[in-house]
Specification:
Strand 3 (77-82), helix 4 and strand 4 (100-105) form a beta-alpha-beta unit. By secondary structure, this protein is an alpha/beta fold. The chain is globular. Helix 5 (114-123) packs parallel to helix 6 and helix 10 (257-277) runs parallel beside helix 12 (341-354). The strands form 4 sheets. It has a 7-stranded mixed beta sheet, with helices on both faces. It has 12 helices and 13 strands. It has helices at 14-19, 30-47, 60-69, 85-96, 114-123, 145-154, 203-211, 221-228, 239-255, 257-277, 304-315, 341-354, and strands at 3-4, 52-57, 77-82, 100-105, 127-133, 135-136, 141-142, 158-162, 181-185, 196-201, 293-297, 317-318, 330-334. The protein is 40% helix and 16% strand. The structure holds pyridoxal-5'-phosphate. Pyridoxal-5'-phosphate is lined by residues 7-8, 59-61, 86, 133, 135, 137, 162, 164-165, 185.
């Protein structure tokens, strides 16, 4: 079977996939309503929050747009903390809808520094919100989100988080860290196909919502809230993926959140130690290396694209390449969602065979 080792879409449990072959139901009827209530309650548990949570039919980027347009007005000053391609995307979205964006960028491969964030928020008066990526999928770095959020709190800005490739796989404790708006997507850590995204909204964020003037229609969380009161979604949802999520949540909650986090810690460490044992280098600052995706530097003289192609064609292992300025310079191994140690050892064994064929002699360990 193909070893799909990209940071989303990730492999899905058979039980979840089977649910997707079920006949359609009325999305305004009682069966869907009961499922929506059950799933919303389950998602809240995974978000570790008492805040409102909504399930949207869209991909992660749609949820990022939702997180921007509902709480801000054109001209609002926004600080975007960017450590890679997804941080840059958050800035683009905010700019597109007219926010006055200042970007606080850090070198790709490093995490954001809370002291520099503190300084930036002190110097630029009048910030309304900070946008931050929890886990930067393009570089394999997990930001110290609890610390960054605490700095945001201190400066009384809305803390808006892209947790698309972290939440449900590594700790993202929405209430304990007092995060205002948090988004994630079904095809990353949730073991469900793409099409659904989740968003949490704090009381502070609802106050901002009341004053926010950016244009919004499909992604209006006020409509989502109103419809949820009648056990519905405002628009036709991806019902089949709801079926899958219903089952995936059962599997996740049976395993237990802390066990899920521990499993990701194990596979993350196994991946990093494995590639290092082959003589390769991880891009991320070791202290902030992600437990959901590893970015590995393509060794000198090796064609990164040829390696990814060889792994796919002859070892049935699908890796991700680099994005933006990292294209050809890194390859990425996804290890989130339905992932076991064996998936990683298989991937490492394939790499060990493939590397000499693209001109790199792996270390003999
Ligand atoms: C995958 C991802 C997204 C959203 O991607 P979609 O393709 O729109 O689902 C956003 N942020 C991060 C950090 C991601 O990993």
């Amino acid at each position: 079977m193909t070893n799909l080792r990209i940071p989303g879409p990730t492999p899905c449990a058979d039980e979840a996939l089977q649910e997707m072959s079920r006949q359609m139901i009325n999305h305004r009827g009682p069966e869907f309503g009961a499922m929506l209530q059950r799933i919303t309650a389950g998602v809240k548990k995974v978000f570790e929050t008492k805040n409102d949570v909504f399930i949207l039919t869209t991909s992660g980027t749609g949820a990022m747009e939702t997180a921007v347009v509902n709480f801000l007005s054109p001209g609002d000053r926004v600080l975007v903390v960017s450590i890679g391609a997804f941080g840059d995307r958050f800035a683009d979205i905010a700019q597109t809808f007219g926010a006055d964006v200042t970007k606080l960028s850090f070198d790709w491969g490093t995490a954001a520094d809370p002291a520099k964030l503190d300084q930036a928020l002190s110097e630029g008066q009048g910030y309304k919100a900070m946008l931050v990526t929890h886990n930067e999928t393009s570089t394999g770095v997990t930001n110290p989100l609890a610390e960054l959020a605490a700095v945001g709190r201190k400066h009384d800005v809305l803390v808006i988080v892209d947790a698309v490739s972290s939440l449900s796989a590594v700790p993202c404790r929405v209430d304990a860290w007092d995060l205002d708006v948090v988004v994630t997507g079904s095809q990353k850590g949730w073991m469900v196909p793409p099409a659904l995204a989740m968003i949490s909204v704090s009381d502070r964020a609802w106050k901002a919502y009341d004053a926010a003037k950016m244009p919004r229609y499909y992604f209006d969380v006020g409509k989502a809230k109103k419809y949820l009161e009648t056990n519905q979604t405002p628009w036709t949802p991806a019902i089949s993926v709801f079926f899958a999520l219903d089952v995936a949540l059962e599997i996740m909650l049976a395993e237990g959140l802390e066990n899920i986090f521990a499993r990701h810690e194990r596979v993350g460490k196994l991946t990093r130690e494995g590639v290092k044992a082959l003589g390769l280098e991880v891009l991320a600052d070791e202290r902030f290396a992600s437990n959901t995706v590893s970015a590995v530097k393509v060794p000198q003289g090796v064609d990164g694209k040829a390696l990814v192609k060889l792994m796919r064609e002859e070892y049935d292992t699908v890796l991700a390449g680099g994005q933006a300025s990292l294209a050809g310079k890194i390859f990425r191994i996804g290890h989130l969602g339905l992932v076991t140690e064996k998936d990683i050892t298989d991937c490492l064994a394939a790499l060990k065979l493939a590397l000499p064929r693209v001109g790199f002699a792996p270390a003999s360990v």
